């Protein structure tokens, strides 16, 4: 019997790779350090309902990804989100509607990766710290010192700075990953008992602390008891405030939001902040995925492509396709 393929990371890239390999008849096993799947597409359950603190929506431009989105729509875990879009620049908030279809997981962003997990074997709460290559097989060690294996191949589907030490056996791949800079994003959520008197549902901000804000509860399928908003700091602001307290971050982003939104903003009934240390690659790449096919180790994730949900999915697809090609 052949050993299964190990996939480290149950975000959209790892699960995209898992789907391709599983469909081709290969046994896979995923390792995920968090308690659930999704990574930067995860949603946070809170007292005011679930909140999409990471990816807000995604676009689909590549034919293969469009097909995947259509399959998720058919399963009911993705719906189109057509918000009243605005932009803020030169001190003015103006409507900025466009024709671009935008998609979200429903009833929350994490519904997509949850559906992709299906009955695939995943070890949750398991952070992999090392990958070893034996004479024939791979084995993995986790943060608690437990060993996992044997595996025929390893796919590392985590942000580049976290992937680098796991790629030590393949120094060329490790060097490429080590050169990738990933920018942070501070995310804050505010919930109001009485809805704000504004038509804005999503806003691209082009100056100041904020990059984007959205009315979370107007996405399809979301709980609507509170008027919930998610605010994202720019990469520059987030980096400059990397070690700020959550209270300071909420206060500053709330203040910036209140300046822009153009209506009365009362004290929120609920707030939270989350720091994404490795939110997005500082620049796009066109690598697809990294591979040392002879060793049997691959790396993928948004940082190998466009730094978006679609790029991450395509990168996982590419890693798995290269592995299958090498087996033929
Ligand atoms: C604030 C924010 C807003 C965004 N907005 C958008 C948007 O609107 N549209 C868009 O298209 N994209 C957006 N993105 C980007 C998008 O979320 C990512 O490109 C995509 O989700 C990355 O997927 P991934 O699978 O490559 O990585 P991840 O989602 O990071 O998945 C990696 C997984 O690996 C796990 N992991 C890490 N290290 C280990 C380890 N050692 N052992 C085991 N498990 C490990 C992590 O817990 C995680 O679950 C946003 C990202 C952020 C942070
Ligand atoms: N905050 C983070 O950490 C992020 C990490 C990774 C991606 N992030 C944001 O995700 C969206 C997704 O990009 P996309 O799929 O290319 O979507 P898009 O809607 O086409 O937007 C791209 C970019 O174009 C500008 N823009 C688009 N539509 C409008 C509009 N109607 N009015 C004004 N400007 C528009 C805008 O600058 C968008 O950012 C993207 O927002 C990433 O920033 C966050």
């Amino acid at each position: 019997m052949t050993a299964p393929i190990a996939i480290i990371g149950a975000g959209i890239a790892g699960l995209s790779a898992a789907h391709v390999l599983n469909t081709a008849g290969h046994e896979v096993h995923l390792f995920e350090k968090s308690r659930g799947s999704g990574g930067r597409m995860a949603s946070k359950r809170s007292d005011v309902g679930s909140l999409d603190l990471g990816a807000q929506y995604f676009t689909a431009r590549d034919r293969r990804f469009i097909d995947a989105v259509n399959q998720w729509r058919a399963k009911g875990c993705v719906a189109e989100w057509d918000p009243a879009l605005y932009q803020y620049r030169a001190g003015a908030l103006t409507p900025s509607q466009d024709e671009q279809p935008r998609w979200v997981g429903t009833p929350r962003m994490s519904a997509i990766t949850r559906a992709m997990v299906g009955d695939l074997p995943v070890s949750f709460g398991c952070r992999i710290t090392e990958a070893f290559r034996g004479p024939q097989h791979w084995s993995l060690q986790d943060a608690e010192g437990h060993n996992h294996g044997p595996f025929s191949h390893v796919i590392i589907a985590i942000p580049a700075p976290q992937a680098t030490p796991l790629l030590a056996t393949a120094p060329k791949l490790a060097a490429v990953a080590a050169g990738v800079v990933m920018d942070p994003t501070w995310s804050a959520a505010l919930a109001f008992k009485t809805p704000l008197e504004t038509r804005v549902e999503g806003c691209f901000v082009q100056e100041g602390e904020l990059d984007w804000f959205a009315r979370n509860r107007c996405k399809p399928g979301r709980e609507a008891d509170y008027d919930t908003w998610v605010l994202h700091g720019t990469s520059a602001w987030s980096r400059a405030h990397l070690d700020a307290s959550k209270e300071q971050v909420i206060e500053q982003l709330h203040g910036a939001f209140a300046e822009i939104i153009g209506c009365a903003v009362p004290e929120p009934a609920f707030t939270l902040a989350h720091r994404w240390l490795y939110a997005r690659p500082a620049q796009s790449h066109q690598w697809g995925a990294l591979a040392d096919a002879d060793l049997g180790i691959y790396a993928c994730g948004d940082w190998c492509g466009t730094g978006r949900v679609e790029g991450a999915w395509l990168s996982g697809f590419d890693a798995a396709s290269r592995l299958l090609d090498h087996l033929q």
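The CA atoms of residues 109 and 263 lie 28 Å apart. The pocket of LOIAYBZO (ligand 2) is lined by residues 58-59, 85, 87, 96, 98, 100, 185, 204, 211-212, 232, 279-280, 307-308 (CB under 6 Å).
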